[in-house]
Structures are given as structure tokens and as C-alpha cells.
Amino acid sequence: MARRQVAVRACPLAASLEIVGERWSLLAIREITYGVHRFGHIAAYTGASRNILADRLRKLESAGVVERRQYSEHPPRYEYYLTEAGQELQPALLALFQWGDKWTEVKSSLVVRHTCGHDLKIQRSCSHCGDSVSRETIEFARSGDF
Question: What is the pLDDT of residue 1?
């Protein structure tokens, strides 16, 4: 019996992971989300070596996820800020944060609150009808099949 050739799927998730799928990239984005903008502080809070962090920040900058802003001319020093694309990663980061808090042994000392004062939880619901989203309620189809 001949094996059928299987092609690698073209996938936005895979493309996203090419940009943000490395540990130090996501942790740098976490720190910038927390309001940490200077390279030395990002390195300290993430535990990343300076050379690896510099590489990840360069990749994130070239992908349009972060931007550098100069805050000192002599010597030249920069701060890092999330672009619109980087800010749109925040729900995904919060979902990973919540997943890790539930399913790993590491418990956070942080509580994530909305400006309304209540703890923030990522909800898995359809933006159109409001129904709950689970594997059982999702269909995967090729673009244009609907």
C-alpha cells in the first residue's frame, strides 16, 4: 500500500510562532506589557542573557511587534514599546498566563484586574453569538467553504 504524500500546512499559527514562539520573545513581550521598557530591566526580569535578548528584540522589531525609542544620545540607549501588533498579543499572553496558573505548579503572585476592578479572565466565546467555544463547537474548513 503506497503512502499518501502529506504537505506541510500553510498556517497562521505556525507563522505567528516563527515570530513570537521563542521563550525569550514572549517573556520580553510580557515585561514590556508590564511597563518595563529598558533593555537591562527586561533582561533582569526575564533571566535572558543579553546577547539572546538583543537577538529576540531585533527579530520582534523587524517583525513589527516592538519598536525602539531612543531615550539617550550619549551613549545611545533605547526603550522598547509594543506596536499595535504587539498589543494585540495581550489576550494570548493572558490566556497562557491563566493556563499556566491552572495547569502548572507555578502560581503567580500577580492578579490581573480590569479597570472595572474585577479579576480579568479570558473568556472563550464567539464574538458573533456569544456561545461558548470548545473543540466540539469549532469547525475547521478551507477558506471560501463557508
Answer: 64
